[in-house]
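Figure 2 data, in text form.
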Amino acid sequence: MNREFIKKIIKAEKLKYEAIKEILPTKVREKVEELENDSVNILKDVAVELLKEEVKETNSKSIKKVNIDFS
């Protein structure tokens, strides 16, 4: 697909979401914003944990020379 088209579609969806949030009652909007913040924090934590595991796996891998006797 065309890159500009995709950018415009994403922007339109973002604006639609913001418009819907604006018409929500104040308490509901606050809850939605709190949920958004919590979701972002969880995603950040997951990303950090995945990176830590990947680094741990990379460090734990080692190469050992093996001698094979064919006689």
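Caption note: The two ends are 62 Å apart (CA to CA).
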